[in-house]
Amino acid sequence: MTSLYQHGTLAMLMGKQLQGTITAAELLKHGDTGMGTLTGLNGEVIILEGQVYQAQSDGRVNHITDLDTLLPFASIHFYKPTQTLPFDQVDFETLSDKLKSAQLQNIFSSIKFHADFSRMHIRIAPQQVPPFPSLLEVATNQPEFEVADISGTLMGYYAPEIFNGPTAAGWHLHFLSDDKSFSGHVLDFSAINVTGTLQVFDEFVQHFPIENAGFRGMSLDLDGLHAGIEASEGGKK
Length: 237
Fold this sequence. Notes:
Elements: E1 3-7, H1 10-14, E2 22-23, H2 24-27, E3 33-37, E4 44-48, E5 51-55, E6 61-64, E7 70-71, E8 73-77, E9 83-84, E10 89-91, H3 95-98, E11 109-123, H4 135-139, E12 144-147, E13 150-159, E14 170-177, E15 183-200, E16 203-207, H5 213-217, H6 222-233
């Protein structure tokens, strides 16, 4: 059985619950590859080979070695690839089409590949302080960065449409350059010399921060939830 473990929900972030509720140490018990954000939406986190990296909104990248660092939302799994990717070049627009034969539309899956990127367009959420705004409010004013000719690793998850709310439906991707100097949430990309893998999951483990009073008492505008997630996540589905 292959499991994708998720702490918190994207709906929580839409509901202004940005306080950290799991440590990096606890999270790493459930995998060695993943993504998330830190308390107050402080940047974009990517986890590769058990190492945690944070992209800050000023463009800098930190190697997180303090495993007491808290995250409000994260997804993680143990890297056990299902198949090698059947292409050597791809961009965000064609990613789903190139994987159509894998029939991902109704399952959770993860992609991880190294490539040479002629274009990499990312955004990085800036740190917020209490009283916290919603993810949608933050998304209307967040730094974006774009570079050309960069090599690195892209990883992320595909979630079925019916899970839009707990997480983001479609592709949710993060990037880390080889020199660990450029990272963030991927809005668009174009890649060649792609080498990597696809992993599919037969179990989705949703973990809730039940000891957190803010989470237990929050209320959500469900009518606007999906539209808000789409607006805040950006990128292409």
